[in-house]
Amino acid sequence: MEIRTIKNAVILFIAKGAYSGKAPGAPGTVGTIVGVVLYLLMKDLSAFWYGIGFILLAAIGTWVAGEAEKLLGKKDSASIVIDEIVGYLVSMFMVPFSWGLVIGGFILFRIFDILKPWPIKKLQNIHGGIGVMLDDIGAGIYTNIVLQLIILMKLF
Predict the structure, then answer these.
(1) For the chain, give me the number of helices (H) and strands (E)?
(2) Which of 70, 76, 100, 114 lies at a C-alpha separation of 20 to 30 Å from 82?
(3) CB-based contact 27:20 (threshold 8 Å)
C-alpha cells in the first residue's frame, strides 16, 4: 500500500471519529458519543493535562478536518465528526464528574451545536479545518458556561 493512501486513510479515520461519522441519520450525535467515551477516559486528569490533551486533539483535528474536506470534496461534511468530539471535551472542561452532568453536557452540547446561536454560526464561514472546528468549540464553550452556572447555583 502506498504511503499517500495510508496517510489519507488515517486522516479520514481521525476526522470521522473512528468512522462514527459514517453512522446513518445522526453522525454528529454518534460522534459526540465518541467524545463522551474520550471524556470518560480523560476525566481523572488534572486540568493541566486535560487542557494539553484537548489542545493536541484540537490541533490535530483542525488539520485532519481540513485535509478530509479536500479528500471528500465537501465543506464540513457531516461525516467529519472530530469537531463534535473536541467540542464535547470543551463542554466538560473542569466540570466535576457525575453521570447527570455527562448527560446534561451531551444534551446541551447537541442543542448548541445544532442551533448555533450567535456568533457560533458565523464561525462556520471560516475556510478550512479551523472553520469546521471553531463552531463546535464555540458550542462547547457555551455548554461549559451553562454547566458551570448550574454547578455554581447548586442546581445539580
Answers:
(1) 7, 0
(2) 100
(3) yes
The C-alpha atoms of residue 98 and residue 153 are separated, in whole angstroms, by: 16
Question: In terms of Cα–Cα distance, which of 22, 23, 21, 50 is closest to 38?
Answer: 50
Question: What is the distance between the alpha carbons of residues 57 and 18, in angstroms, rounded to a whole number?
Answer: 14
Listed residue (92, 88, 103, 94) closest to 136, CA to CA: 88
Residue 39 C-beta-side C-alpha neighbours within 13 Å: 28
Would you say the pTM of this structure is higher than 0.90?
Answer: yes
Separation between Cα atoms, residue 66 and residue 62, nearest integer Å = 6
Residue type, 83: D
Total number of residues shown for the chain = 156
CB 80 within 8 A of CB 31: no
DSSP state of 127: -
Which cell goes with 43?
476525566
Neighbours of 16 (CB within 10 A): 23
- Cβ atoms of residues 89 and 42 within 8 Å: yes
User: Would you state the pLDDT for residue 27?
Assistant: 93
Tens-place pLDDT, residues 86-124: 999 999 999 999 999 999 999 999 999 999 888 888 877
